[in-house]
Design a protein that fits this description.
Helices cover 19% and strands 40% of the residues. The chain is built from two helices and twelve strands. The strands form two sheets. Strands 1, 8, 9, 10, 11 and 12 form a six-stranded antiparallel beta sheet that branches. Strands 2, 3, 4, 5, 6 and 7 form a six-stranded antiparallel beta sheet that branches. The protein starts with a strand and ends with a helix.
Length: 180
């Protein structure tokens, strides 16, 4: 078995809003890095093109639409105005020629659920062949649902699918035994 853990690298911060008319279309704001004095807020779109119910927290099935003429704002109020403007345009129609399309860098392979039904592992495969395992826990608050796991800051990788499955089973057992 060949698997390992790595700390999750902090990604860009941001937020997305969807339309009441179409929950598969989002307009997003990427916040500037705090250490850049001249940084700008960036606005982009996100559209679900997958073949199952949209799951905003999983990357497979989504494409990002980055305007070829960048939408930038100096402050959050202007960014929010541009975000809502882009959302309205995307809901009406999408002219793909106006955007650089970015697809997910990994694809979903399978999910493994712990027998308790309280923990779930989702296995993804990167384009370079390695596997990544995400863990979710069932939360009963606010109507219940799958949510990020307490150990969200650590990623599990594996060199092959069998190792990914084995690592997922071991970790799910550990989470269940600790009642995380």
């Amino acid at each position: 078995m060949s698997y390992w853990h790595e700390p999750r690298k902090p990604g860009p911060r941001g937020g997305c809003s969807s339309s009441e008319k179409n929950r598969d279309i989002f307009a997003c704001i990427r916040y500037p890095d705090v250490d850049q004095s001249e940084a700008k807020y960036e606005i982009y779109g996100k559209i679900w093109i997958g073949d199952r119910k949209s799951e905003p927290w999983f990357s497979q099935g989504w494409i990002e639409l980055w305007p070829k003429a960048p939408m930038l704002a100096a402050d959050f109020q202007e960014a929010r105005r541009l975000q809502l403007e882009l959302l309205e345009r995307l809901v009406l129609s999408v002219d793909y020629d106006l955007y650089k399309i970015v697809r997910a860098d990994k694809k979903f392979v399978e999910a493994i659920e712990h027998p308790s039904k309280e923990y779930l592992a989702r296995i993804y495969q990167h384009q370079d062949g390695k596997f990544e395992i995400h863990y979710l826990g069932w939360h009963t608050g606010r109507g219940g649902g799958w949510g990020r796991f307490p150990r969200f800051g650590t990623l599990t990788f594996a060199s092959d699918l069998d190792s990914a499955r084995e690592a997922a089973q071991l970790e799910l057992e550990e989470f269940a035994s600790q009642k995380l």
